[in-house]
Every structure is written in structure tokens, then in C-alpha cells.
Automatic annotation (TrEMBL), chain A:
UniProt biased composition (Low complexity): 886-898
GO molecular-function terms, A-Z: enoyl-CoA hydratase activity; oxidoreductase activity
Organism: Alcanivorax nanhaiticus
Entry similarity comment: Belongs to the short-chain dehydrogenases/reductases (SDR) family.
Name under which the protein is recorded: Eukaryotic hydroxysteroid (17-beta) dehydrogenase 4
TrEMBL record, chain B:
One example GO MF annotation: acetyl-CoA C-acyltransferase activity
This protein's name: propanoyl-CoA C-acyltransferase
Domain annotation Thiolase C-terminal: ranges: 262-382
E.C. number(s) listed in UniProt: 2.3.1.176
NCBIfam families according to UniProt: PRK08256.1 (NF006102)
Uppermost EC category: transferase
SUPFAM superfamilies: Thiolase-like
UniProt source species: Alcanivorax profundi
Gene3D superfamilies xref list: 3.40.47.10
Keyword Magnesium: no
Compartment(s) of residence: Peroxisome
Keyword line: Lipid transport, Lipid-binding, Peroxisome, Transferase, Transport
InterPro entries given in the database record: Thiolase, Thiolase-like, Thiolase_acyl_enz_int_AS, Thiolase_C_2, Thiolase_CS, Thiolase_N
Biological process according to GO: lipid transport
């Protein structure tokens, strides 16, 4: 880097007769700058005047070959100083405002003169010189200005009120001039130097002053004055070789919601946040300073608390879908008391869709959205935006339901839930959601506002809202009254419309909530009231109904009599209240129903629906795993080279429903289908619902499954990537497989067929086989094979032992079978029907899985000569004896816990390591048990239970058995994570000695 | 004749979590400019650039360097997994040392995605398949981020060998957080207690969440030059590289069926031995260390690999506080990968920056008093390990 030069530049340095100013002047001059050396020659206190100080510096500069002139004016006469520069050098490029004086005195004792004098020299002086140079710099489009502030001004210092004020004033002046000079390439920077000078020699000890040489400040000044330096508006601390930049720091601060008053208490409460510099910002100009204020103006926080986040609530929405049909409408109408008289045609129209005048009870408009919400809640999937509380806090407070036109007899709807408002009824909250339901053509069908009371979720300091009473009935007697008794089991009927809340059905649950018995759904009462108004004011024609608004005031019990009192406010508006007659309590109030003057037209339907589309099947059969693997098999046939490319076999273990499939791309010619494969390279375990993802060709999606733990891969994990060879498979292949299956009449899934008692049961079959074997002892020699059958749907185990004389058959498991056959119970007749081709079809179709010695399964054909009548005889015998079908009812054997059995074995060996260390706890899982060993005892035994332990190991029952049987090493179990060790691992390692 | 290589300028960005950073070329520009400013040189002085990054298409290095200037100089893109940054530094050092250039820049940057590291190219042999096979054979494959399984598995093996307490690993994370609290460039400035660290979610026993480095975005840069260049530019007493070595896997990584060996213990050990031999000094002469603490387990192993303590002695070393201020060495004063963050390409250069600041006495609150000799260790699975010894006489 070339030396930074100032040739042809002209600088004014004020107070340059000594100290810092002198050094600035010398430094600039040494680099070729022409310098006006200004110094009044006075004392540090501003007294006196002499030309000798400035002259001496000029002489020094000239002696080293530089150019300089002296000026003896006070800095208050900036014009004269600048004139000297113009006269001597013709211009001015640099102004270093350095001159200053001190009149230190405590504020209490400070005189007006002390104040005026210091401000005059520092602040006014710097202004004066700069002001005189400013037009010249603006004119030429170049300037470098230095202001000299001080740590005293930046941070405050005792006894320097005048000086501190003047010094920070300079920083402010520089900030402004930097902005004003920016476009004219005038840079203004401020330094806070500390150096030995006339100003500091009296206040600092000599040893400190020695190290605070002006030479350590001037290089910064010179750099800031150089044409290459882009810095402006900077403030720098400099001294003794240390240089650093200062900036403003602003805490993230606190934004009180705009438009809402906040008090001194609020400020005190948020003081921590206001003064917390975590993630602080560094505003560098007025705009940045103003930006959070603008933000607060533009985006006032809506507030909220841990239960209700109004900012989230107001921004996001939730979409749910549902559908209904005539059956739902009729059930609803029945459950809110319609058609009590089944002969009343006017009522029948709400519940009988074949009557020709079927119409929806209009209050049903509330049901689809609330049903969708309740369904989601039941599935644990309801997430109303910004609402972070459980359903148990929620109490339905008010409901507004509006329908745009008579509800169609069936519809598929999309419901958009949007937060409308929240009132802070500290300690509770009242939240309103607006729900728009649209049909498949995008036509709005219904609009609902659901207002709920949320217990203990208030208190965020939000709007309380007025509790103004609306829809207050006039003072006169009602214009119409209808009363109707509900049924004792009304809630049990109504709940079938989708409100599953146990509060309305489960007596114990209701009692837990403080009710004597299950209460009627508020919306059931709502439906009754709606019917009453329609009946009284629109001739029981629901098509005139527009909207209903109610407040739920009190609980109704099923069996009570509802009395709706109605006041006609106008032709289109009925105010009403619903009372429980028996208790004379109002249960729905502040309520009104609006009516249309004319029945609204039907919703527009999009045109151009082709005949083809209309005749298309409504429900498309889903592609099943069978279809997918059939497609894979087809694809492999099409591309035999896949086997060479891949060289890997895959086993798939699906859950929900449990099913196994394989893809063999290792053994030519390759295969795929249901069932298992021997020694697969990779095994993938996943939920059936993820099938499409695995074969979708989107590797990232598959990886997501994997890392999310939803896809478990064992064996050669890396080889699982080879599945990507299938990504080019045409998805249509799976659809073709589906179509073929559907055409063949295949169900989408195996269906469990209940075994009727008159039919021969599996037990009958095996009983018959047992008899057949007993009658034909030569079968043992012919077959010499034992068979295990694992049936599914229902799960049941049977065996045929044709290996060990005299041969047996029946329910249960053999110790070691040569062949294992897994199949659905429904295929049992085929298996024993004697038609080998049919059995083979089962096998190749994957409906029969054969494990163990596959070839040996052929030996089953020895049974083909068995007379089917034997089975019927067995059945008859069973029925005659009145025995229940015990075989099928027999559950699959549970694995017995092994810890109890195997641990004593360990105990025997423990004496070898007795007397070494503390208590070792063994926590056994699935099934759970707990044991401990006190290794400090000389002859430790194994005791059941838990105790304070120095070390705890946790492992599965089966792993424990493997460990003690010597099938796996202790260290391997640990390394694989099959055994967890907490506490002192060295203690656990002692077990290694004996295992 | 090998020439002395000086590090005259370093710079880095504040590390940020994925999604919260600038784009890679913007981060690289900031780090590059900072390093040049620190060195007091112009971009026109730079003769070659070595750019490290892992995630990104080819020639991101050029795109980044073009932010600094378009002077047509050679730009080499470097990709070496987690040791990418120091691999760029290694090439840069070679260029100066061998007399091929007078002044070069090593620039590392990374823009990472959220979540654990995963493979990007799955239609071909996985470069870590041999490493993965060792893991399959010793502990199988589990539901956890693969890197955590590998280093966590090494931690298990170590625990089994020496009976190490689980908290000993947590202790390293606690120290990392304490150090990072003083580092304005670090991703995490918040101190965590040992209890909080141990109580965080278990990622892979013995590693809990706070014992795993986070995916991070950031950039770092270093300017390297010859003595002649430094002299010409009036740079006196610069920090210099006293020794440097790069190793890759030895047969032991795969043959010994040891997780500790698989994650590169012998790479570390061999590179460190080489560096000590070149420099003619030993671990006892070192004041400050930046080492590859992608997981606490690896920091523990690395203490032994670098010879900071004897084999099997790491637990005592940790509980005696010999890895922090007041102890034998200060390891990862910057907060390390655990707390400063681990943008793969930038990490090696951020380590370099920290150590240069330490040796110049510019590390502010993190300053290790009187630091004169500094050691850098940067390791990537796959694998490569670079160990660098810096001095400031």
C-alpha cells in the first residue's frame, strides 16, 4: 500500500501551538499538507495571548521542508482564520477543530462567565471556523472536518458541566454537518482523544501523561482527513495507541399497543424489557431512529397472552371440510323436535326426503362447520389460529348463523375459520370466530359467528367490550308463544348429529362438571327455538329463514319444556327468548331471527359440465398397497436390467393395517408382491399411509419420513437409496393394477369374516385332520414334516405334526415347526380343499406366506385324500356337545416375561464380583420389572424392586434374556443403545467379568 | 526452501441460524472485506483465492469472490465436508509457502438448511458408505441424525472403555456456552447450566440437544502472505503459521470396527504429531486451542488426539477445568462449533480468525492472557483433518 499523502491539500488546525493540535499539524505537514497553524497563545484557561506558540510550530514544519503559516486569531473569528488559508494557499480542504480551554468548577460554584467562555471557545469556535470554510468546501465538492469531543462529554465528568455540554454539543454539530455535507463529499468526524496537553497536564499524574502522547492520536486524525477515507459521522475514542469507533445502541425496547393508554405502572412493569440490550440495534440516522416508532404506528400489536395470541389469530385462518346429505338433515330435524306428529305433512318435509317437498331445517346451517370443528378436536387436530387453550376451557356463549339461501339437500362444504374479535373479561376471555362455509362451486352457503367464553384466559389488558344488551324484547306481551316438551333422551338423539361431548351423554362425566345429569346441547335448544319462530312467523317454511342470533344464558336438561316467546319487530325481524317452563328460567336470550322477504334464488352452478363427467363414478377406488406392488412387479418385468443395476432385496413391513410386501431386485428375474423375502438386504418399516411417499419418487420426502422417525430402515441403510431405480415407474401402472383388481371384484382390503357357529370352524378342520392322522399312521412316514399355521382375521394358531409319531393336529404352537404357513382364516378351505393349483395360486398371489422349508409345504398334499365329511362330523360333534368355539376364541400366546426366569442364573455367578462397588439397578421393559443387585455385599444376590443405585441399566426383557444366555455381549447392547446406562458405568462393567 | 507464511488479516460474519442470514455471496463479501481491511491491503494485492463451501452448486467461490473484485485471478473451489474451511487455508498456505504467490485469500462460507445433515446425491455411491458400514456393524442404524449417531457412538465407546460420566460430556457444552457469551460473532450468547444441558432432549445417548452443534450460516476469511509482502506493506510482527498438516482416513478408520477410530481419532492424532514435529514444540507449549467440537463427544476425544491430556484422562482434564481460563489450555475460547455455530465451509476460517485475534491480543473479553502459541483443529467425516499451529513471537 502506498503512503497516504496530502500533497496540495490545505488544512486549518486550530489550537495548533502545542499538544494535540501541534501534532496534528506536524503529521499532516509531514505528508505534504499545507497547514494554517492557528493558536491564540493563551493559557489552558483562556487567559492571555501570544504569537510564539504558533510561530514555533510553523518553524518546525518549515524546518522539515513543509509548508505552513501561522494565525493568531481567536477561533471565534473563524472568517479571519479561513482568510489566512485563502491568502496563503488559495483554498481550504481540511479543518481540524482542536482549540479548547478548561474552566473546571463544580456546577454549584460555576459562574455564568465560566459557562459562556467554555461554550464560546469550544462550540462557537468550532462552528465559526467550520462555518467560514463550509461555502468553500461546498463549492469545490470536497472537505474533511474534525470535531474534537471528549470522554467527559460522552460519559460525563465531575466538575466539567460547561466543558461536557460544549463537547457533546460538538458531537451534535458534527452529526448534522455530516448529513448536510454528505452530497458534497464533505466528511465530518469527531474524535474523543486523550493525550497529554496543556489541558490535561494539570489533572493527570506524570507517569500517565508520559504514555498519552499526542503522536498516538494524530494518525487517526490524518486518516479521517484523507481523501480515501469514506468515513463520516463517526465518533472515535483514541489514545495511547487505542482507537475505536463509538455508535449508538438501542435496546429492542417495548412497544405498548398503540391507541391504548398505558400508565406509569405499565412502564415500570416493562422496565426490564425497555432497558435490556439483548439483540440491541444500532440506529445511525434519524430514519432508523424513527423506524420502530413507525412500526408501532403501522403494526400495533394486538396483544394477548399464553392462551390467546391475537397477532397470530388475526393473521391466520383454519380450513376444514365436511359434507352432509338428506340423512343428516333429517336426523338433525328429528333431534331438535321436528315431526313429532308423523302425520303432519308440514313437519314431515323436514325429515322425509322422498316426500317431494323436502327442505332443510335452516338452523342446520350451524351444524356442518361445528361438526367439522368437533371432529377435528376429537382427532386432536383442531388448531384454531392463535388459540392455545384446551377445549375444556371453552363454553359456547353466543351464536349467529346466517344462510345465504335455503340449504341444498346435500353438499360438500369448505369452512374457513377466521378470528373476529376477543374481549378481555379478565380473568376470562370472550372470543368470536367467523366461519364462512362455501360449496364446491365456491358459493357461500352459510356464515356463522361463534362466540365462546374461555375460562381464565383473559387478563392481557385488552378491550373489555361493553356488555350491552341487544335484541331486548319490548315491554308488551309476546306476539306468539310456542311451548314444546323435550324428551328425556333428547341429548342421545341430538349427539348423533356430531356433538360427541360426553357432557351430554355420560352421567358420570356430567356429574364431574357439577350437573345432576347430562345437559341438553345449547344448539339443540337453538334448533327448537328456530323451529318455533319459523312456525309462528313464516308459515313453517324454512326457506324464508335468513339468520338467527342467540345468547346461551342457562342450561337445559333433557325432558324439560321449552317455551319460546316471540315478538315481531318488523316483517323481517323477530325478537325472541326461550324459557324452561318448569323452572321459569330464560335459557336463550338477546335473540332474534331475521327472515327473507322472498325466497332467495338457488346458488349458481358452473356451466359446461360434460355428460362424461357427470356419469363418472362418484367414488374412485383407492390404489392399495397390493396395486402398488403389483405395479412394481410389472415394471420389473418390463425392465429386467433393474436387477443388475440394483442388486438389492427389500422387505416392507407396513402397519395400519399390518401387511408385508417385498421387492426382490437381487435375484433374477426380480419380483415384487405381498409377503416376505428370505434375508432381505434392507427392511423398511412404515405406516401404510406413507406408501405413496415411498414410491412417489420424491427422495427428499422419503428422507423426511426417515429423519422424522416414520420410516425405520434396518439392514444396509445405504442400499435403501437403490429404491430410487423405481422412480421412473409410470404411476399409471398402479392405477391399472387397481382397475384390474376392481374389475376382478377384489375388495380393497381383506375383510374379517365372522365365523358362524353353524359353519365348520378352524377347530373343526384341525380336529378332523387329527382324526384323519390317527386313522392313517403311515402319513407320518410319508410327510415327516411339522407344520405351523398362523391364521389372521381372526388371529389363531394351529399346527399339524406329521413328524413325531403318532402325529397330532390342533390349536396352539409347536416348539419347532419345519414349515410355517401364514394366511387369512378365510383361505383355510382352499388350503385343505385338496386343489393344489388353488393353493399355489394363494401362494403366488401372496395370500399364503410360507416360512421355513418351503418345499416341505408340498407334503401337506398327503392330506388331500381326507374326506371333507370328517370336518362336518367334527362340527356336528362340537355343536352336539354344546361346546363353544374355543379354538377360535383362544388368544394368541403372550410372550411370558423372562427376567424372573433368567436372573437367578445371574445371581449364582454374582458372588465372583461381590464386595466391589455399590447398588446396580436393573430396569426391565416390556414386560416391565425392576431388580437390583448390591455389589457391595460379599455375596450379592438379585432382589426384586427398586433401590437408590449407583448405576441403573434399562433394557428390554428379551434383551436381558439374550444377555444372560450369552447371545449378546454387554458392550454390544450398550453400543447399540439396546441398554441404557445411567450413573456409574464402571459398576456396570463389572458384570462383564461374569457374563 | 519453504517460506514463512503470515496471516495478516482475518474477518468473519456474525454466525446466524438458517433463514436468518444473508445469501452466501453477501456473507462472503463481508468476511472478505473485513479480512482485507484488517490486513490493510487492497483486493488488487490478492493473487489467488481458495474458496470453501459444501452446499451449493459449482463455482460459488467465484460468485463470492466477484463481490470483492473482478481481477481475473485463479479461484479454486474447495469442498471437504466439515474441514472445508481449513482445507482452503491449507491450499492457501501451500501457495505462499511454495513461493507460488505473495498474497492470497482463503475464504469460507456456508448457507445451511435447517435440520440435521443429510445426503444430497442418492443416485450414486455414498462417500461415507465405508464409515456407515462400521457403524452398522458396531451399533446398527437408529432414528437420529447420522452425524450424531457416529460421534455419539464414539462417545458410547469411550464411556464403556473408561466408565465416563454422562455429565462429563455436558460439562463441555457448559464451558462452550460460557466462552461464547463473550463472543459477539457467536450464534448463541446465552449461558446454559449443566442441568439445562443435561435436561435437553436426548439426540443420541449420551448426546443431548445442547451437545450438538447447530446448522449455521456464516463466512470467514484469512489473508495469507509472504515475509516479503508483509515487509513491503509495513506489516510488522504478523501472526504466522508455524506448522500445518492435513490427514485423511487410515485403515484403522474401517478395520478396527471402532467408532472412535471411524470418526477420525487417528487422523487427528497423526496430524497433531506431524505439526508438533514440524514446529519443534509440544502440546505443553500451547496457550490456546480452537478444536472441532461438532459434538461434545468429539471435543473430549480431541483433547486426547491432540495430546492435551493423556488417553483416558479427558474426564479429569474436564472436571479440573484444564480446558478453560485458569486451566492448562483454553479450548474453544470462541465458543466453538457448539455455541459459535458450524457453517461447514466457514468454520475452519472462523477458528483461524479467533486464534489470530488471540495471538494479537485483540480477543477482548475472551483474551487468553499472554497467548503466544495457538493450535487449530478442524475435522470432517469422509474424511479430512487439518491441524494448524500459529505463533506470534
Amino acid at each position: 500500500m502506498a503512503e497516504l499523502r496530502f500533497d496540495d491539500r490545505v488544512a486549518i488546525v486550530t489550537g495548533a501551538g502545542g499538544g494535540l493540535g501541534r501534532q496534528h499539524a506536524l503529521t499532516l505537514a509531514a505528508r505534504g499538507c499545507k497547514v494554517v497553524v492557528n493558536d491564540l497563545g493563551g493559557s489552558a484557561h483562556g487567559d492571555g495571548k501570544s504569537s510564539s506558540a504558533a510561530d514555533k510550530v510553523v518553524d518546525e514544519i518549515r524546518a522539515m521542508g513543509g509548508e505552513a503559516v501561522a494565525n493568531y486569531d481567536s477561533v471565534e473569528n473563524g472568517e479571519s482564520i479561513v482568510q489566512t488559508a485563502l491568502d496563503s494557499f488559495g483554498t481550504v480542504d481540511i479543518v481540524v477543530n482542536n482549540a479548547g480551554i478548561l474552566r473546571d468548577v463544580s456546577f454549584a460554584k460555576m459562574s455564568k462567565q465560566d459557562w459562556d467562555l467554555v461554550l464560546k471557545v469550544h462550540l462557537e469556535g468550532s462552528m465559526s471556523v467550520t462555518h467560514a470554510a463550509w461555502p468553500i468546501m461546498r463549492e469545490k465538492g470536497y472537505g474533511r472536518i474534525i470535531m474534537t469531543t471528549s470522554a467527559a462529554g460522552l460519559y460525563g465528568n465531575f466538575g466539567q458541566a460547561n466543558y461536557c455540554a460544549a463537547k457533546l454539543g460538538l458531537a451534535g454539530l458534527a452529526n448534522c454537518l455530516a448529513e448536510e455535507g454528505r452530497s458534497k463529499n464533505i466528511h465530518v468526524n469527531t474524535i474523543a482523544p486523550i493525550a497529554a496537553s496543556r489541558l490535561t497536564e494539570t489533572i493527570m499524574p506524570p507517569n500517565l501523561l508520559e504514555n498519552l502522547k499526542p503522536e498516538a492520536v494524530s494518525p487517526l486524525v490524518a486518516w479521517l482527513c484523507h481523501e480515501k477515507c469514506e468515513e463520516t459521522k463517526g465518533i472515535f475514542e483514541v489514545g495511547a495507541g487505542f482507537i475505536s469507533k463509538l455508535r449508538w445502541e438501542r435496546s429492542q425496547g417495548n412497544s405498548f399497543p398503540l391507541g391504548k393508554a398505558f400508565s406509569v405502572d405499565d412502564v415500570a412493569r416493562r422496565w426490564g424489557k425497555i432497558t435490556d440490550f439483548t439483540d440491541a440495534e444500532h440506529p445511525s440516522n434519524v430514519n432508523e431512529s424513527f423506524s420502530p416508532i413507525l412500526d408501532n404506528i403501522n403494526n400495533p400489536s394486538l396483544g394477548g397472552n399464553e392462551f390467546i395470541d391475537l397477532d397470530v389469530a388475526s393473521k391466520e385462518s383454519l380450513e376444514l371440510e365436511s359434507s352432509y346429505d338428506e340423512n343428516d338433515l333429517s336426523l338433525y330435524a328429528l333431534s331438535v323436535g321436528a315431526a313429532r306428529d308423523p302425520l303432519d305433512k308440514d313437519e314431515l318435509k323436514f325429515v322425509y326426503e322422498l316426500g317431494g317437498n323436502f327442505q332443510a331445517l335452516p338452523t342446520y346451517g350451524v351444524m356442518p362447520q361445528i361438526g367439522a370443528m368437533l371432529k377435528a378436536a376429537k382427532e386432536g387436530a383442531l388448531a384454531l389460529p392463535g388459540m392455545n387453550f384446551g377445549f375444556d376451557r371453552l363454553l359456547h356463549g353466543e351464536q349467529y348463523t346466517e344462510i345465504k339461501r335455503p340449504l341444498p339437500p346435500h353438499a360438500k362444504l369448505k369452512h374457513t375459520f377466521k378470528f373476529k374479535k376477543a374481549l378481555d373479561k379478565d380473568p376470562n376471555a370472550v372470543v368470536t370466530f367467523a366461519i364462512t362455509s362455501t360449496d364446491e362451486n365456491g358459493n357461500e352457503v352459510a356464515y356463522n359467528e361463534m362466540t365462546s367464553f374461555v375460562k381464565d384466559a383473559g387478563g392481557w389488558g385488552g378491550e373489555r367490550g361493553d356488555s350491552g344488551e341487544i335484541n331486548v324484547p319490548p315491554a308488551r306481551e309476546p306476539d306468539a308463544v310456542i311451548e314444546e316438551k323435550t324428551d328425556a333422551n333428547q341429548t342421545l338423539l341430538y349427539r348423533l348429529c356430531g356433538d360427541w361431548n360426553p357432557l351430554h351423554a355420560d352421567p358420570a362425566f356430567a356429574r364431574a362438571f357439577g350437573y345432576d345429569k347430562p345437559i341438553l346441547h345449547g344448539l339443540c335448544t337453538f334448533g327448537y327455538a328456530g323451529r318455533h319462530v319459523i312456525k309462528a312467523f313464516s308459515n313453517n317454511d324454512g326457506r324464508y329463514f335468513k339468520s338467527i342470533k342467540v345468547r346461551f344464558a342457562k342450561t337445559v336438561f333433557p325432558g324439560e319444556t321449552l317455551e319460546t316467546r316471540m315478538w315481531k319487530e318488523s316483517d323481517n325481524r323477530i325478537i325472541f327468548e326461550t324459557w324452561v317452563k318448569e323452572r321459569n328460567e330464560v335459557v336463550l336470550k338477546n335473540a332474534a331471527i331475521e327472515l327473507f322477504s322472498e325466497i332467495p334464488a338457488e346458488a349458481p352452478v358452473p356451466e359446461q359440465v360434460s355428460a362424461e363427467e357427470v356419469s363418472a363414478p362418484q367414488v374412485e377406488q383407492a390404489v392399495t398397497p397390493d396395486d402398488v406392488f403389483a405395479a412394481v412387479a410389472t415394471y420389473i418385468k418390463q425392465k429386467p436390467e433393474l436387477v443388475d443395476q440394483t442388486g438389492t432385496s427389500f422387505q416392507f413391513e407396513f402397519s395400519n393395517p399390518d401387511q408385508q410386501f417385498f421387492i426382490d431386485l437381487k435375484n433374477a428375474p426380480g419380483a415384487a408382491g405381498p409377503g416376505t423375502i428370505d434375508k432381505p438386504d434392507v427392511t423398511l418399516a412404515l405406516d401404510s399411509e406413507h406408501l405413496a411417499t415411498v414410491f412417489g419418487g420424491d427422495l427428499a420426502a422419503v428422507q423426511k419420513l426417515f429423519f422424522g422417525g416414520e420410516l425405520k430402515i434396518s439392514g444396509n441403510v445405504m442400499a435403501s437409496n437403490k429404491l430410487t431405480v423405481l422412480q421412473d415407474m409410470d404411476p399409471k401402472l398402479a392405477e391399472q393394477a387397481r382397475d384390474k383388481r376392481v374389475a376382478d371384484g377384489g375388495g380393497s382390503q381383506a375383510v374379517a369374516v365372522p365365523v358362524e357357529s353353524q359353519e365348520p370352524t378352524m377347530a373343526d378342520v384341525f380336529s378332523a385332520i387329527g382324526h384323519f392322522i390317527a386313522d392313517n399312521p403311515d402319513l407320518i412316514e410319508k410327510a415327516a414334516t411339522s407344520f405351523q399355521f398362523a391364521f389372521s382375521n381372526p388371529d389363531q394358531d394351529f399346527y399339524i405334526d406329521l413328524k413325531n409319531a403318532p402325529g397330532t393336529a390342533g390349536a396352539g404352537q409347536l416348539d419347532k415347526a419345519d414349515v410355517t404357513l401364514e394366511l387369512d382364516s378365510k383361505h383355510a378351505p382352499t388350503l385343505f380343499g385338496g386343489d393344489l393349483a388353488a393353493v399355489q395360486k394363494l401362494f403366488f398371489g401372496g395370500d399364503l406366506k410360507i416360512g421355513g422349508n418351503v418345499m416341505a409345504s408340498n407334503k401337506l398334499t398327503v392330506l388331500q385324500d381326507m374326506d371333507p365329511k370328517l370336518v362336518e362330523q367334527a362340527r356336528d360333534k362340537r355343536l352336539a356337545s354344546g361346546q363353544p368355539d374355543t379354538a377360535t376364541a383362544q388368544p394368541k400366546k403372550q410372550k411370558a416375561p423372562q427376567a424372573e426366569k433368567v436372573l437367578p442364573e445371574l445371581a449364582e455367578k454374582l458372588s465372583a464380583i461381590g464386595g466391589q462397588g455399590g447398588v446396580l439397578q436393573i430396569k426391565v421393559r416390556s414386560p416391565d420389572s425392576a431388580w437390583f443387585i448390591d455389589l457391595s455385599a460379599s455375596s450379592p444376590g438379585i432382589v426384586s424392586g427398586e433401590k437408590d443405585a449407583a448405576a441403573v441399566i434399562t433394557l428390554d426383557d428379551s434383551k436381558l434374556a439374550d444377555l444372560i444366555a450369552g447371545k449378546v455381549a454387554l458392550s454390544t447392547l450398550y453400543q447399540k443403545g439396546d441398554m441404557r446406562v445411567d450413573g456409574d458405568l464402571a459398576l456396570v462393567r463389572k458384570l462383564e467379568q461374569i457374563l | 526452501m519453504k517460506r514463512r507464511v503470515n496471516v495478516i488479516g482475518v474477518g468473519m460474519t456474525k454466525f446466524a441460524k438458517p433463514g436468518a442470514s444473508d445469501d452466501y455471496h453477501v456473507m462472503a463479501k463481508a468476511a472478505g472485506l473485513a479480512a482485507m481491511k484488517d490486513a490493510g491491503i487492497q483486493y488488487s494485492d490478492v493473487e489467488q483465492a481458495f474458496c470453501g463451501y459444501v452446499y451449493g452448486d459449482s463455482t460459488c467461490g467465484q460468485r463470492a469472490v466477484y463481490e470483492l473484485g473482478l481481477t481475473g485471478i485463479p479461484v479454486v473451489n474447495v469442498n471437504n465436508n466439515c474441514s472445508t474451511g481449513s482445507s482452503a487455508l491449507f491450499l492457501a498456505r501451500q501457495a505462499i509457502e511454495g513461493g507460488l504467490a505473495e498474497c492470497v485469500i482463503a475464504l469460507g462460507f456456508e448457507k445451511m438448511e435447517r435440520g440435521a445433515l443429510g445426503a444430497k446425491f442418492n443416485d450414486r455411491e455414498n462417500p461415507m458408505s465405508q464409515h456407515a458400514q462400521v457403524m452398522m456393524d458396531t451399533q446398527g442404524f437408529n432414528q437420529a441424525p447420522p452425524a450424531a449417531q457416529m460421534f455419539g457412538g464414539a462417545g458410547r465407546e469411550y464411556r464403556w472403555k473408561y466408565g465416563t460420566k454422562r455429565e462429563t460430556f455436558g460439562k463441555i457444552a457448559e464451558k462452550a456456552r460460557q466462552h461464547a457469551a463473550n463472543n459477539p460473532y457467536a450464534l448463541f450468547n446465552q449461558v446454559l447450566s449443566l442441568e439445562e444441558i443435561m435436561a435437553s432432549d436426548e439426540v443420541f445417548d449420551p448426546l443431548t440437544r445442547f451437545q450438538c452443534c447447530p446448522p449455521t450460516c456464516g463466512a470467514g476469511a484469512a489473508i495469507l502472505c509472504s515475509d516479503e509482502f508483509a515487509k513491503k506493506h509495513g506489516i510488522a510482527n504478523p501472526v504466522y503459521i508455524a506448522a500445518q498438516a492435513m490427514t485423511t482416513d487410515f485403515a484403522s478408520s474401517f478395520d478396527e470396527k471402532s467408532m472412535i477410530k471411524m470418526v477420525g481419532y487417528d487422523m487427528t492424532r497423526s496430524a497433531a504429531d506431524s505439526v508438533y514435529e514440524q514446529a519443534g514444540i509440544g502440546p505443553q507449549d500451547i496457550n490456546v486451542v480452537e478444536l472441532h467440537d461438532c459434538f461434545t463427544a468429539n471435543e473430549l476425544l480431541t483433547y486426547e488426539g491432540l495430546g492435551l491430556c493423556r488417553e483416558g484422562g479427558a474426564e479429569k482434564f474436564i472436571w479440573d477445568g484444564d480446558n478453560t481460563y485458569g486451566g492448562k489450555f483454553v479450548t474453544n475460547p470462541s465458543g466453538g462449533l457448539l455455541s459459535k455455530g458450524h457453517p461447514l465451509g466457514a468454520t475452519g476460517l472462523a477458528q483461524c480468525a479467533e486464534l489470530v485475534w488471540q495471538l494479537r491480543g485483540q480477543a477482548e473479553k475472551r483474551q487468553v492472557e499472554g497467548a503466544r502459541v495457538a493450535l487449530q483443529h478442524n475435522l470432517g467425516l469422509g474424511g479430512a483433518c487439518v491441524v494448524t499451529l500459529y505463533r506470534n513471537d
